[in-house]
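Tokens help. Consider this.
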Amino acid sequence: MDGEGAGADGVRERAVVDRRLVAVGTGSYRHVPELPLMSEELRVAVRLFGGLGYRVDERITDAGLGATRDRLLDWAYRTDGTGSAVVVYWTGHGADGAGRHYLLCADSHPDRLAGTALATEDLTRYVLESGAERVLLVIDTCWAGLGVADSAAVAGRLSAALRQGADRGRATGRADGGRRLTDFAVIAVARAEEAASPMVFAAALETALARLSVSLKQRYLSVEQVVDTVNDIYRSAGIRQTARAHVETEGYSFFSFENTGFRPEALSDEGDVAELAARLARTGPEGLRRRADLENHFAPRGKGFEHTAPGRGGSYFVGRTAELDRIGHWLAHDDGTWGRGLVVTGGPGVGKSALLGKLLLRSGVRTADTPAPTAIHARHRFLEDLVAAVAEAAGVTAGTPQALLGALAARRAPLHLIVDALDEAGEAQGDDTEARRIATDLLCPLLRVPCVRLLVGTRPHVVDAFGGEPAVLDLDDSRESSGDDVAHYARRLLQAPDGPGSRGPYDDAGAETVAREIAARARGSFLSARIAARYLGRAPRPVDTAEPGWHARVPEVGETPGVTFLRVLRHQLGADHVRGLPLLAALALAEGPGLPPDHVWRAIASACATDPSAERDAPGTSAPAFAWEDIAWLIDAVGEHLVEELDADGRSVYRLYHQAYADALRGTLDPGARGRVAHALAGLVPEGPHGPEWAAAPPYVRRHLAEHAEGTELLDTLALDPEYLLTAAVSALQRVLNRAGTERARAAARAVGHCAALLHAPTDEGTRAAQLRLSAFQSGAGELAGAVRLRYPRLPWDTEWAEVAPVPYTTLGTFAGGVRGAAVVPAHGRTALVTAERDGPVRAWDTEGGELLAELPTDLGRITAVHGCATRPWAALRTADRIWVWDVESRDLIGAVPAPPRTVDCAVTDLGGECLVAALDRSGTVTLATASGGAPPLTLRAARRRALLWRAFDGDRLAVAHHEGRLRIAVTRVHRWKDRGRRARLTVWDLAGASAASDDSVGTLTVERQLHRNLRGRDVEALALHRGTAAVATHLTVAGPLVGTWSTTRSDGLRVVEWSGHPHGSALLITPASGPEVTASGPEVTASGPEATPASAPEAGAGPMCLSATAYAVTARAADGTVLGRTRTDAPVSRLLPAGRGPDGLRLVSLGADAWSAKGWHLGPPPEQGETADDPEVTVGTGTHSGRPVVVVQDADGTRLLDGASGAVIDRMEEREDGPAVETHPGAPVVLRDRLAKKRRRRRQQVGTWLWSSEPPASFPRTRGLVRACPVPGAVEPGFLACFGYYETGRHYIALHTPDGRVEDPVDVRLNGIHSVRLVPDGARVLAVVVGRRHEFDGSTEEAPPPEPYLTVCSVPDGTVRFTMRLTSVNIVHDLGRWPQGPALGYVTHDGELAVRTRFPASFTAPPGNPDIVPRPDRVRVTALRLQTRNGRPTVLTAGADGALTLFAADTTEVLHRIHLGGEIRGLDWLDDERLCVHTATGILCLRLG
């Protein structure tokens, strides 16, 4: 047993780790049935683990609880577990009691478990007392005779109990010597059958390891893989027994079983393949994939035979000499005959892959200094996969084709690319859509990159996707002339069918005659000849060419290799072809790298073998069943047609040798096979009490079931299965759901994308399900929301109903602190978002799925900004005195340059492979320096030095780009005193020498020209360079608030596009209007400013566009001012960043107003006529109506009453100028009052007030000067707190009013204007918190100062509480609630602390004392606050600027609930003790917080 994936370190560790086995078993019981086979099971377990290097350290059999516990603890205390690995094997009865799981000892009583049996978590704690660093617990419990029928549920509970014990053991276990638990694995087994079962776990484990040894390439077998195989053995034998596995590890998993069938020589060949593989060696996933492509595809094709005999060298490749020489000369000498690209095409089996494979193997004999071609097998791969592969091979990083093309544009070293099987790209059962997408979006643009030479292998039907750009070499044209080569190839296979050194039955003469016959039938198809010759070469006797009719013994070669394959298969399989063909057809339908040799393969084969006509004739006919032995037989019988690979988990999988085989086999299936396969895979998921248990599904099913279900009715079922959505692979799931033909599936795709970063978060399943239900409501997927409630009826919190406008986006993540700076860079083949958090880490996130890619060191000082390079994974972190440049991929420091004093902007670019940093200071001076510091810096001045009085223009924005072989730099300067009316200045430098290769890159730069322009606006918001254009966004034009777009071109050739006066909002970005064009000089667009960042170059003729964010929309405008697109947002945007382009257009990343979260969007279409960018004003409140909670919504159309339980409309009132005003307060009846008349009549107006009720409304006496009527919550009889003013004095008062006309004495709140009121009843009085403004004018000046904001607390009617405090704003976040000790006032201080007062003075002049500071569990800026008592505890509910709600206990800061809404939270109020109404930027949500 050793570490999976550990490599050389794991092998070395194997020799030094001390392995110990503790075996415990009980077969004889006093109070429960005996287990007579216990001794045999322990014997097998000791033998099995002994063979893996474990020695028996303790053995306990048939002991009572006391003896078992004492011996386990004695063993633990005497054991020094340093550097050791311990396996505990326990077998016996198990039981559940009082919510705990118990292991029964000899004297245990099922009715008195707590005192007579060992609690399962205690066993884990005892083992951890040994100090062992690696622990594997194998617990095999029998529940026979104890009334248990569901072994899977028992195994799950057992596994959970073992993990719980490990958690407690970590906290309380022995910690001397600094030991820690690095590996913890559990195999929990439960039996629910007769006690004398002939099948025990140890024997099943031995059988599983023997079965898995069929793999030659997989070195280690993971615990999960072995347990899956054990369960398969149980199912096949009809045994009601289930095993569950759980592994926790640091790094690689130590507890993996060594595969006895592993053959190191199967991983790589000798000679040229081994050398080439070594040169391709990489540690990243793309490097490993390229090496796998070489060993499993290109090398076998180039040698002319697959790898079935490890260690045998040589080659069977014949012919194609002219083509190889011509292509080799083209690659080596830049022969212009074929331009930059060549497409090798032809029918299946004609030798396309063989030609490209041989060309690749030829490169292995070159010198080590010559880079090997980048060879990519496109089978079942997507555009994004090819981008990542090319980027990794080229030593650059890019997540999109645009970024990749930009990174390669300035490359001078040749890059030779081989892309084979382009027609096989995409899903296994898809069409050529993905192949054409790859050709159009990636391969055709690559043909325009000077350093690239591209070879593509594909079938003819995809060639037209290239639009005639590359040359075409059609191998079908040489079919007739290649007969001798085909015959030579067939003769070699007849005489040595399994590689050089193997022997066939043919002598030279016989081989020559039969080979000629095969060649004549193959008609130029090497693959057809290979199939037939290989079959005859493996026959026990040769075809006797002297016998009459010997031609009939030569297999018929069909018109295609696929037909030949099927004919030969029938000869090979004979009578067993009925058994073999479905197994092979299953491989033809496989997605990803292939099928594992387990029940997944067998299930698909059974679906393929089903005869629909027989099913119609005899309903209920079961599909043919396949056993593991059938797979082993197939691998042995026709293994030459199969290829073994390793999947993403390192497990062996199998696929067919050639796509022609898959095409032919799929042709034998009926149209219903696809649906049957999808349902068969779904049937492999274990059934639980509430439906399929997707977490226990085979890995292949979780990864690829959505792809198999595409186009079937099962996809809609999966889209509405919340547990499946929580466990399936997100990327494949979203790809399939987005293409779905039904709205329910597309709605599910929106919901999954909305919370993609949270679905697989390390939280409990219930919380993730609740988050999915919330996202379903927010995305308009009501059917999915209902399915989540049905599957998870007891969620920790829930969304009761919603009234929202869906806004589609993908959550990229949330941050622990605010973000000081952000930029996008290409990293790990993706577009990465680099964020520098306040007082936190610098991290890089994947902009597609929100995955954390890297974390950079944070000991650099206070970071003020982040700048990114468009073509390299370089991020510049700016501090007060230095600019640090890091490689995001390797996390290495590239260098640091001094930051000029008063630096205002910075940019990073690639200059001949060097990292060039440009910094702009306030004086308008640009400093250019390499990050390595290898050359003196170069300075550029935007204006002559003058006296300080005249140097009034300050540097503002900086942009850097490559254009026509030059480095172009642009800066803007703005006047220091904008009220002087001076227009902003633009200065552009063109520097020659940017494309020259030199160790002193900066030293080769010379200023070729310097251009100046005066802009129309006075303030610059964004600056970008796009080809020959400088694009600027300004406002505050000299002529006033003039709105427009101007484009000018001067005689010097510089074109300036200026957007001025548009409502830009807080975030702005300038980026190209369409896809990429690449020139030899590099990327053509670099934008600058805190909100404008690097972007890719546009296509010819495409100009820049300006994207601006207003309150709740992002709008794109072209250079002529035309609106190109608009996207709704659910929160104000502070930063916009480009993240490449996809099928849906431009992709954007936005950061929230306080930069606490990031989201990925696509730019939408232009708005309809008359559509505005921002939403109309909406006011939301809560209250009661006829005794039930309601939500009150006021907008331009009027006022609606919504039922708090369902969201249904109870009543409505149209908006009228003379209509009543609506007053609400949580927990109080909704009150209507007369609107105030014009100001001059207010002092005499009598205002009427009444309750909004379905019954006859209760009216209150009319009140003079009433400005607000606040209904009192929780009162025995309805009433309201009247806020009215005496206009003679300008003071405002509050007083209680009741329907019977009683009016208590008014209380002076010492305010001249009221902004908000919150009330809490407190016995016979009501406590009121009033926020407003107060005039403080002492007559010392002629003009009165503006009123100051204040908060006042008063009690009415007694006036015993009088407290006031001065505020910085009337928008203070505060609440008046009730805690166990009484009314509590909570508010957020200016430094973000939560202050709470529960004691108030009786006089405005009395010292109030200091408030209590309540610690918060986070530092997110609070936008709303509510205090409440829940279950007798004081709690705080906060709405954060990150769009999240946090409910925590005020006495312990324990987080009770954390809910990510994503959008801006405008307000929130309780409907009752559990239900909460949340007003967001997209609508209203009603949540229930249990």
Notes: Residues 2-263 form a domain with the Rossmann fold fold (CATH 3.40.50.1460). The mean pLDDT is 79. The first strand starts at residue 2 and ends at 4.
